[in-house]
UniProtKB/TrEMBL annotation:
SMART domains registered for this protein in UniProt: SH2 (SM00252)
Short name of any one Pfam family annotated for the protein: SH2
GO molecular function: GTPase activator activity
Residue numbers spanned by region Disordered: 168-200
Gene3D superfamilies in the cross-refs: SH2 domain
InterPro entries named in the record: Chimaerin_SH2 (IPR035840), Rho-type_GAP (IPR051854), SH2 (IPR000980), SH2_dom_sf (IPR036860)
Protein name, entry field: SH2 domain-containing protein
Domain (SH2) ranges: 49-117
Keywords: GTPase activation, SH2 domain
Highest taxon listed in the record's lineage: Eukaryota
Length: 200
């Protein structure tokens, strides 16, 4: 379906498009929490945000300083696996972190941890502020033709609608087991795998 092109003075984006863009701008900004001491066996693809094998409680205490703050730690229950701990909504969210040349917690890959965290904070913020709005919006097919501008200049809404999943530490994630998923919207979602570490 063709989309009519208007002069900048005439074109007015749909209200929902402006609203989602506004939410992206309002989302918390990443704040890297650096480790001040040398950490043994730090993976070469992580920087000073890597804190080694610290507990969930230690990470939570460190991250309580600011919304959007983050660090990477090695799991105590599963050595050799890594967790991205991220402060959002006055609580610490924990994500199993992977690297295959790029960083990821779901299907979408990122060149840097900073980019991953930026995208994650936008996703979590939109999920929190606009879940009902997005659910209603998916009934209207206009989003299929217009989309909205993301950080990556992608023309669709698809990759920024969140799907969160909590995975207890020590269990496999969504791709490996059929755990329940919480979806926002009917057909579009951005996969984020969140896990709640047990007391370590």
């Amino acid at each position: 379906m063709a989309l009519n092109v208007f002069d900048h003075d005439e074109y007015r984006p749909p209200v929902w498009k402006s609203y989602l863009y506004q939410l992206q701008q309002e989302a918390p900004h990443p704040r890297r929490l650096t480790c001040t001491c040398e950490v043994d066996k730090r993976p070469k693809y992580y920087g000073r945000e890597y804190h080694g094998m610290i507990s969930r409680e230690e990470a939570d205490q460190l991250l309580s300083v600011a919304e959007g703050s983050y660090l990477i730690r090695e799991s105590q229950r599963q050595p050799g696996t890594y967790t991205l701990a991220l402060r959002f909504g006055n609580q610490t969210r924990n994500f199993r972190l992977y690297h295959d040349g790029k960083h990821f917690v779901g299907e979408k890959r990122f060149e840097s941890i900073h980019d991953l965290v930026t995208d994650g904070l936008i996703t979590l913020y939109i999920e929190t502020k606009a879940a009902e709005y997005i659910a209603k919006m998916t009934i209207n097919p206009i989003y299929e033709h217009i989309g909205y501008t993301t950080l990556n200049k992608e023309p669709t809404l698809k990759k920024h609608l969140p799907m969160c999943q909590e995975v207890p530490d020590g269990q496999v994630s969504q791709g490996e087991a059929g755990d329940k998923e919480r979806k926002v919207g009917s057909t579009h979602h951005f996969a984020h795998h969140e896990k709640e570490d047990r007391k370590e």
